[in-house]
């Protein structure tokens, strides 16, 4: 039993092969998945796939990369989070890779998501890229640990992992952990406590070895879990068990 804790099933590469994708999940023992929103304009697709399938859950939020889109306030996020299949707020956070001027609108949006998550008691899905110091600072200032959540597709240093854990957050590893040049990330995989570890695909992106360069899908979270197991010197069955337990502990509104 495995859970893909972060994927984008509503994206064209996946939704256009919905039945085959779901069949592949079943064949690989991937019993549940969380379809994560990136903007409000496409939220109906996220909610649609979750409504059609009892083992698929949804989040609500606006990705920090998305500048030309509806800007949510707390009331709007709370309204949307009341949907029975929504189990999290996000993805949210900071990304300075494309926005190298470190825009204040990203930080303001991030704060809005954190405040909404605290009010509705749903965990946060946090994205950070080239922005770790500011991400951690905003999380601390806004007391994001009250809501809790996950640092998704974690690619940062061991020090950032340690700081995130101290704030009460989980660490989710993607297919990047299987890449040949990801030795430092495998060190993080070994460091994260068993009760704070999640696995994800972030599909349709970042397919793990041996599918690197191809369209990713939730079925491949099995290979992510295997890479984590190899790094930790543990079995796939053990990683599957602990990450599944962790998923349902964190996303308490999800139903196994």
Content of β-strand: 15-25%
What gross morphology would you assign?
globular
The string of secondary-structure elements, in order, is EHHEHEHEHEHEHEHEHH
Q: Largest sheet, order of strands side by side?
A: 1-2-3-4-5-6-7-8
Could you explain the architecture of this structure?
With 256 residues, the protein is α/β, with parallel strands linked by helices. The chain is built from 10 helices and 8 strands. It has helices at 12-15, 18-27, 43-52, 74-81, 104-120, 132-141, 158-166, 183-191, 221-232, 236-250; strands at 2-7, 30-35, 56-60, 86-95, 124-129, 149-151, 170-173, 197-199. It has an 8-stranded parallel beta sheet with strand order 1-2-3-4-5-6-7-8. Strand 6, helix 7 (158-166) and strand 7 form a beta-alpha-beta unit. Helix 4 (74-81) packs across helix 5 (104-120), helix 5 (104-120) packs across helix 6 and helix 9 (221-232) packs across helix 10. The longest helix has 17 residues, at 104-120. The termini are close together.
């Amino acid at each position: 039993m495995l859970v893909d804790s972060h994927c984008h099933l509503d994206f064209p590469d996946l939704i256009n092969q919905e039945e085959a994708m779901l069949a592949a999940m079943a064949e690989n023992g991937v019993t549940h998945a969380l379809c994560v929103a990136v903007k409000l304009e496409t939220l109906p697709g996220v909610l649609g796939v979750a409504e059609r399938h009892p083992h698929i859950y949804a989040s609500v939020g606006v990705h920090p990369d998305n500048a030309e889109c509806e800007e949510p306030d707390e009331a709007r996020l709370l309204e949307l989070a009341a949907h029975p299949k929504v189990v999290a707020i996000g993805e949210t956070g900071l990304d300075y890779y494309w926005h190298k001027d470190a825009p204040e609108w990203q930080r303001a949006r991030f704060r809005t998501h954190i405040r909404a998550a605290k009010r509705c008691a749903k965990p946060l899905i946090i994205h950070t890229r080239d922005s770790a110091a500011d991400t951690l600072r905003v999380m601390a200032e806004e007391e994001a640990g009250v809501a809790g959540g996950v640092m998704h597709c974690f690619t940062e240093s061991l020090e950032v992992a340690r700081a995130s854990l101290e704030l009460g957050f989980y660490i989710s590893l993607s297919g990047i952990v299987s890449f040949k040049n990801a030795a430092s990330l495998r060190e993080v995989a070994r460091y994260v406590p068993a009760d704070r570890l999640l696995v994800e695909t972030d599909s349709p992106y970042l397919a793990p070895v041996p599918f690197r360069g191809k369209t990713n899908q939730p079925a491949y979270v099995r290979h992510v879990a295997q890479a984590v197991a190899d790094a930790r010197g543990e079995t796939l069955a053990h990683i599957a068990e602990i990450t599944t337990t962790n998923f349902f502990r964190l996303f308490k509104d999800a139903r196994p």
